[in-house]
Amino acid sequence: MKLAYYPFEPFIFADDKITMIETGNHDIYQNLILNFKDLKEDLHFSDNDSNLLDTSKALHWFGDAFIQVDLDKSFQTHLYKKLKENMTESQTKQIFDLAQQLKTSILEATYILDLPLQVEEQTEMSKIFKFSDLHFSSTLVSNSYGIIEAILKTANELNDDKILGFMNVSDYLTDDELVELNELVRSLKLKVLLIKFSEIERREKFNGCRYYYIDSDYVEWK
């Protein structure tokens, strides 16, 4: 997959390594973010056959994941669907039987009230998941690498083939964690984009990544 941003050479995305774009130009940095948030349309994604793609179909933009991303809000509905698809027939039956037992117990408890109360006869699996409070571990809230790792692994489980985009990752991760992240991307075969404002080129920090730098004078360094 490619990203065209005139007058620069296309930026390349593949599942072999992270694509890192840094710039010392404030206008370029802001323009990247606005386009990735689908608020502007002067950047253009294309697939390997040069077919143009809408930004929303090419990129899943998470922004500053440590600050902005709510894992449950982002993925819960999709995970419920995936889990339901992967459950065995016996697992599904067991869960429905237990849910029915719970409903029966609740209904029996209402008999002490002189009221026309009832429970739903049909039970949706998504409601059972929600009732069980199935969610990502709360320990991830204070773990910047853990949040990004969870996003990548979830995208992999959901077969998300979009580019996964983040900003400011190097503000939180150590050099060793960046290396580990790149290895994770390679092992999961995901397309990942990181962007960051930097007044200096930092190619060595992102050794192993596909690195691009645009300086304050709009000069691109590869």
TrEMBL record:
CDD domains: Csn2 (cd12218). It comes from the Bacteria. InterPro entries: CRISPR-assoc_prot_Csn2-typ, Csn2_sf. Pfam families: Cas_Csn2. This is CRISPR-associated protein. It comes from Paucilactobacillus wasatchensis. The lineage of its organism: Bacteria, Bacillati, Bacillota, Bacilli, Lactobacillales. The gene is cas4.
